[in-house]
Amino acid sequence: MLAIKYVMLISAVSLFLLAAGIVIHxxxxxxxxxxxxxxxxxxxxxxxxxxxTSVALVLxxxxxxxxxxxxxxxxxxxxxxxxSQLSGTLTGTLYPGSHYVxxxxxxxxxxxxxxxxxxxxxxxxxxxxxxxxxxxxxxxGLSLGMAITxxxxxxxxxxxxxxxxxxxxxxxxxxxxxxxxxWRELAPNYTVREIFSSRRExxxxxxxxxxxKKLATDGIIVKxxxxxxxxxxxxxxxxxxxxxxxxxxxxxxxxxxEIQQKQVRISELEAEAQKVQQVKQAEANSASKVIEAKxxxxxxxYTLPLKQKQIEQSRLEAEARKExxxxxxxxxxxxxxxxxxxxxxxxxxxxDAEANRIRVTAAADAExxxxxxxxxxxxxxxxxKIVAERLSDxxxxxxVPADGKFFFASDVFKSFGAGPAVQTDDPEDPTQHAALRxxx
Length: 440
Prior knowledge:
By secondary structure, the protein is an alpha+beta fold. Helix content is 62%, strand content 16%. It has 11 helices and 12 strands.
């Protein structure tokens, strides 16, 4: 909306400048032509000026200008009301933003909606800030200077009333006299001392209520009324200071007296408490002794039966231990008998197993010896082989044919003299021949 307003304003200004430029251009052209004709001594013929075009542009420029004037902008932190030239202030509040108004008939009056402060200063602050203190009279007729601050805000819903009925600006025309009159009406009901010390907060609250009520009728919202400082008359201040010192001394003496009285009372209470404690302790001791005696008497009634039960229990336990010992001895003897029988059975089984092993071993040895005898009977040279093997593990044996026709080793043995050749004595096997060669 704001961009449209600025665009319309720029368009209107541009059209006004264009119309003025056309007229000026035509006037300058006519002036140059007149100078040329006068210098040449010829009669001047005036050139036509485009008045109609300029007037049309001016009339056309009023259209965007009216559009721009019909847009009113209320800035942030403000509010406004429409004021008509025909009917006065219109109802309704315009909040921050863009709004439509009738150009040249309505305009917008804006008001600052942020919190405002009305301040009166003390005697020392008035020199620095320029705010004079508010002078009021107490009940004694003495003049007091008050440093007051009132924080307030305009009611946004009643801006039309403020604009049409109240003098402007409200900050200087309405608030100061209302605040001053409220304090000056209230102060004569109290003494200087009450305003200064004892009833100061009460005075401030009553003044705040009166100020809030009066300003609320005019569309002003009061948020806080502060009484910052009070200036007393010099003579009264000196007398009040002396009185306050005397009262302070009196208060101190009263406090000390109360403390001493409380200490005496505390001592009395402590003595009474100690007395009561001793009585209670004696009563408790006597009661405990009585209870202890009764307990012992009651306990004796149950002690004898208990002792008898304990003796009976001990006798039963002894008999049980004796019976247990006898049974354990019998069980141990029976276990030893069973162990001896088991040992005899085990030894018998071992003897039978050893005899069986010897029989099997003897049968196996006999069978082996029979087979070896048969083998040796067939090949007697095996005896030499067995003897040679058992003599040393470095002796190597080789079995060769007896005739050695197709075996070259016999010639080698013969040439090297490796060892004697032994021929079997068995006439049934003339083809077998054994050679022994010992190598170390």
